[in-house]
Amino acid sequence: MHKFAIPQSITARVVERRGRAHVYDDLDPSRCALLVVDMQNAFMLPGVAHSLCPTAREIVPNVNHLARAVRETGGTVFWIKTTFTTEALESWSTYFAMVRKERAEKRIAALTAGSRGHELWSELDVQPADQIVEKTRFSAFIQGSSELAAILRRRSLDTVLVAGTLTNVCCESTARDAMMLNFRTIMVTDANAAVTDEDHAASLFAFYLTFGDIMSTDTLIGCLRRDAAAPATLAASR
Hints:
Layout: H1 8-18, E1 32-37, H2 41-44, H3 55-58, H4 60-72, E2 76-82, H5 88-91, H6 93-98, H7 101-111, E3 131-135, H8 148-154, E4 159-165, H9 167-180, E5 184-193, H10 197-210, E6 213-215, H11 217-228, H12 231-237
């Protein structure tokens, strides 16, 4: 698990800007969507992964714990999967031009639908009522990547809780774009994983200062359970 703490200087800047440390601690659990990003073998399984993040395996218990809490308090769990499509070689050619040929080939093999790499990690607690959404870019919300935004709006889900891997790539990209599309957005500090502690922290600090809120798994679950028990008071406050 990543070593992570929020410096007082960061919190002070957030409070000065927003008036409190956690601007989204007033949750309506029934309108929350947990987005678990890219917890696939392509990022987690040695020998199969094209971009291995060992810490992603360590956050699985927190992801599962949070998923159970979201379901129990009336929210919806979404498992977001990156999928390679051949059109990306042209429409996203800038990405493939930046990486070595052998790395690009390994990514294609790992993220093609039907491959072992494309599968979700076997220890994730995926339930029949959960939703699986495939995306074709780092962000699930950027135009053309997926139908996630439309799905959330049809279900009147206005708050997204972002977990998964990598913190500083697909998770942060998805979280930033969620805020840009007017979703209340929280990144879960100990249910996201990056390659290094430094990558993880830098991503969360940047997001917290400008784009949304960050909370630990336990803090977020506490908010969900508290607010699920007092929906009338919550509705009046929002």
